[in-house]
Amino acid sequence: MTYAGDLSPQQTWEGLVSDPQAVLVDVRTQAEWAFVGVADLTAIGKEMVPIEWSSFPTGTLNGAFLQQLHEAVPLQAPVYFLCRSGARSAAAAEAATAAGWTSAYNVLDGFEGPVDEQGHRSVAGWKQAGLPWRQG
């Protein structure tokens, strides 16, 4: 089963702004939230929902992910999954779809995007799109 689709950070922002039920779930690790930053949705009266897909530093999958998602996001709500580059968030959108969410989306390029030729991030994604964010 596949999820509802891949959206750019700008399309995600527009969905969050236009639909009061829409939710942004950041599936990165606590370390990433604290040291890299988080999407700031306060301008639209929302809060990002942090639910780790996997833990740092071991990379162990969060066995309680779907339970935590059920506690935070109604099944009928559009849910946008965000990670660093779009890989973990795609897996989270797949899992959410399999668990009953019909409007689960992956945010393309994530929060920081892929690495460039020098191995640096922040070449694409939420931050580079100029969308609101703050240091964790």
Automatic annotation (TrEMBL):
One matching Pfam family: Rhodanese
Signal peptide boundaries: none
Keyword Transferase applies: yes
Matching InterPro entries: Rhodanese-like_dom, Rhodanese-like_dom_sf, STR4-like
Keyword annotations: Transferase
Molecular function terms, GO-annotated: transferase activity
Residue ranges annotated for the Rhodanese domain, each copy included: 18-123
Transferase recorded as keyword: yes
Protein's name according to its UniProt entry: Rhodanese-related sulfurtransferase
Species in which this protein is naturally found: Janibacter cremeus
